[in-house]
Write a structure and sequence with these properties.
- By secondary structure, the protein is α+β, with helices and mostly antiparallel strands.
- It folds into two domains: 161 residues, 3-Layer(aba) Sandwich (Thermophilic metalloprotease-like); 188 residues, no CATH class.
- The protein is 33% helix and 27% strand.
- A hairpin with a 2-residue loop joins strand 10 and strand 11.
- The relative contact order is 0.12.
Length: 367
């Protein structure tokens, strides 16, 4: 029997997150595990008057690609993908997994090569997003593999997902609009500010936000959401961060990550686990070691690490930085084929100041 909360989730994605209009081309990407949700999204797009087209992927196909593809095949960019990124009006991605560790033993050079091949289309997507010509959103289908990754039963994980997306409530759209209003107060306060400093047992970091805006992440691009973020001035970040949560990228878990940062770049990166992979991805291109994002998580309904960046980067009481691609719509200039988030807890003995004024202390906003 179909979980009625999935119907609500599909409707929230279509009518709130990307606001489908009649005659828009809507590309639906979904993992094979997420077919149940994909069908509901397809239905909702049709009812909204859009023109849906779907594409399915699987862990098995990705594993086969990295096992058998030549360098030329890894460098190849599908003309179908090129058309979608340049011409589609909307994209909706529904992710899931059969096995969250399925790429653990893949040669990191192959993953780096694939990421580099997609750099141009990544920039096209970001530029079209910044101009308003392209809208997108993504969510995860609550499947068994993701439940195991989060150390929950499938029933517990489904309940967690629907609490986080507000689809366990009678009116999830009203709940997300309330999140928008609360976060907008923070974004408005940050407008025109110049300098951010983070002091905690796990970080001593300064960066410039002069001339940069902040984005109110209110469930549009990601579902769920709950963060405010910006692209710092590219050569401004100085200091160090010891990230307290694992960083997961392309099926690999990197733990104990430590960054030394000078003039906006990660000059030294170490890790307790998968350090070689970490540095390989940071060397993907010239922009891959530059900080492309600084963000503060605001979703206090997400109380534990799940192993999914969609949820974990929003944890209330954390901040994160991303290396790689910046956000042009708020002034970000860094270009890279990568964008990798690293999360740090700031719930104890921690503060974030902006132009010397206290914004955030021990996991809570104080303005």
């Amino acid at each position: 029997m179909l979980d009625p909360r999935l119907i609500k989730l599909a409707d929230v994605l279509v009518h709130y997150s990307v606001k489908i209009k009649p005659k828009e081309w809507v590309m639906i990407y979904y993992h094979s595990q997420a077919e149940e949700l994909a069908c509901e999204v397809y239905r909702a797009v049709l009812q909204a008057g859009g023109y849906p087209y779907s594409s399915v992927d699987s862990d098995k196909m990705a594993e086969i690609k990295y096992r058998y593809a030549s360098d030329k095949q890894l460098d190849w960019v599908s003309p179908v993908e090129d058309l979608v990124y340049r011409k589609a009006d909307v994209a909706i991605a529904l992710t899931a997994s059969d096995n969250t560790r399925f790429l653990t033993n893949v040669d990191p050079q192959k993953q780096q090569r694939t990421a580099a091949a997609g750099a141009e289309l990544m920039k096209v997507m970001m530029d079209r997003t910044a101009s308003g010509d392209f809208r997108w959103t993504m969510t995860q289908f609550p499947c068994q593999a993701l439940a195991q990754e989060a150390d929950m039963s499938l029933t517990e994980y489904r309940d967690f997902v629907h609490r986080a997306t507000f689809t366990d409530q009678e009116d999830p759209v009203a709940a997300w609009k309330s999140v928008h209003d609360e976060q907008q107060k923070i974004v408005d306060w940050l407008k025109g500010k110049k300098q951010v400093s983070v002091k905690s047992p796990n970080a001593d970091l300064t960066l410039s936000i002069e001339g940069r805006g902040f984005i109110n992440a209110d469930g549009t691009f990601n579902m769920p959401s709950g963060e405010v973020y910006t692209s710092p001035v590219e050569d401004s970040a100085e200091g160090w961060v010891q990230f307290t949560y694992p960083a997961i990228n392309q099926g690999r878990e990197v733990t104990g990550v430590h960054f030394e940062i000078e003039k906006g770049r990660v000059i030294k990166a170490s890790a307790d686990k998968n350090e070689e992979f970490l540095n390989t991805m940071l060397d993907t291109d010239e922009g891959a070691r530059v900080l492309g994002e600084f963000a503060i998580g605001t979703n206090y309904g997400i109380k534990k690490f799940t192993g999914s960046i969609l949820y974990d980067e929003k944890i209330g009481g954390s901040f994160h930085v991303a290396t790689g691609l910046g956000f042009p719509e708020i002034g970000g200039k860094n270009i890279s084929a990568t964008h990798w988030d690293f999360i740090c807890d700031v719930k104890e003995d921690s503060e974030i100041r902006v132009d010397g004024e206290l914004l955030y202390k021990d996991g809570k906003f104080v303005i």
